[in-house]
Amino acid sequence: MNTRTVSAVSPALRGAGLGLRRALLGPLSEVAPMPGEGIGFLEVAPENWMRMGGRLGRQFRAFTERFPFVAHGLSLSIGSPAALDEDFVRALKVFLDQHGIADYSEHLTFCSDDGHLYDLMPIPFTEEAVDYVAARVRRVQDILERRIALENASYYTPLATELSEAEFVRAVVERADCDLLLDVNNLVVNSINHRYDALGFLDALPLERVRYLHLAGHYVEAEDLRIDTHGSEVDDPAWTLLDEVYTRLGPVPTLLERDFNIPPLAELMQEIQRINAAQARVQPSLRVAHG
Description:
By secondary structure, this protein is α/β, with parallel strands linked by helices. It has helices at residues 54-66, 86-98, 127-144, 165-176, 184-193, 198-204, 236-249, 265-290; strands spanning 16-19, 39-44, 69-72, 103-107, 110-112, 116-121, 149-151, 179-183, 210-215, 218-222, 225-228, 254-256. The chain has one domain (16-290): Divalent-metal-dependent TIM barrel enzymes (TIM Barrel), CATH 3.20.20. The strands form 3 sheets. The protein has an 8-stranded parallel barrel with strand order 1-2-3-4-7-8-9-12. The radius of gyration is 18 Å and the shape is globular.
């Protein structure tokens, strides 16, 4: 069995996590963190809360005082041709420090130039882009005084293919000396849309840099086309691939994403429990391997 040799996982993140959405503030208000049994941690988009005050601000503070948190950004635009927004990064540091959030992740994409595009666009898979993005990541890490994690993104049309997607992801995180947020659903979506082997892609990644995982549902547009929506239940190929990741890395912290069509908390908890069960299945063998 392959097991982790160098751990990038934050000690604060354990078990199965859930994305905190406003629709869940009430249902989650009395829930306590229960790694391995229930919800172990929460994830939030910092842009939605950085300047929030009043009642919602107090509610959010109550959550960060109870739960371990990871911040997953939407607007860093790490591959943008525009200059890095260092004022935003400094404000982000204040927010992370204020709430005691050690872990910050972003998408390996861009979403702005002169203005924000409200979409996550792919970065060209070139050596020039690797150097450009890696330098910007290093600057972000210097300002935040934190290592960050970059997420492998879903995309529908590559802008350039001097490197393969896996080669590009590996080169960026290694040259930037940052970590990887491995999105299992994005890997499934891209492997179908771009006709490559998901397991081969997985094994080409720098798995020792995985900080945590994302798991979500997608929309089946056609047999050979998947749309990354985060609006439905996780499907069987993603659950199968999740087991493969755990076989290689052990029970890495895993975040369930649901951005719209948010069902009652009880339904989300069924998927949270399935993540917990999948993690529990690999723990005995890992204890033997590390012993």
